[in-house]
Amino acid sequence: MTQKFHQRFNIEIPFEEAQRRFVNSVHNYMEFVFTDVGLGSSRFEIMRSVCSKLGIRYEGYKPAHELVGNDFVQNVHALESLYQQNGISQRVDKVVKEILNDSEVDLGIRWENGQFIRTGAPLLDEKVVNDVLGLMDTPHSKGVEQAFRAGLHLFLDSTNKPNLLSDVVNRMYEALEALGKIVCRNDKDLSANREALVSNLRLGNHYKMILKEYIEYANDLHRHAGDKGQAKPLPSRREVESFMYLTGIIIRMALKEET
Questions:
Q1: 113 and 21 in one domain?
Q2: Which domain holds residue 61?
Q3: pTM of the model
């Protein structure tokens, strides 16, 4: 395989610079996304919809890249929103793949079926993120899927906003709590369903302790005050990532049981 320019000339590209280049590439392509035959004046409706999904004010006289701005995560979100618009999904899909392929540095994200997923350990991502998302694609698992996907997106956003790490834990907890209600066929919270969930999944008693610690960890983060009234320190990224994977593992075991 032919090496990229920076590899052939032994140029080191810092991560922040790679993010900046990604954003510039998105901006360079963004206006051309609208050139597909048949779109016509609908480009204005498309950008209005994208701006609404991003929570920003639509100003029709501004070009798309000015509306979206230079924030890395905002541009990632904008590409997802563009993909969801009628008539341009294939064009956006091609553009995103080209931009990611051209990046000199692993940006910590990958493109899967019109969504960005934050990458971690490839094998874990395969089994407890991709596999789990596929298993949750059923009407009765909708609540579990929504909370789990929200947690994944927050984890991506936390790259630039570390204060969101606690919210990732909250969403993952909500996903497992929703799963517990499905498996145990009741409307109890996760603490009340802990032993029943383990029993219904036919897991060993050690999993009762694992789930007990899981619940205590999440509940501890809900208590915003630390010692002597001080703000509680944020959890580390690797702690939150492992919590996310553990959630996926338990959900996978449950849904595999059902299928």
A1: yes
A2: 1-119
A3: 0.58
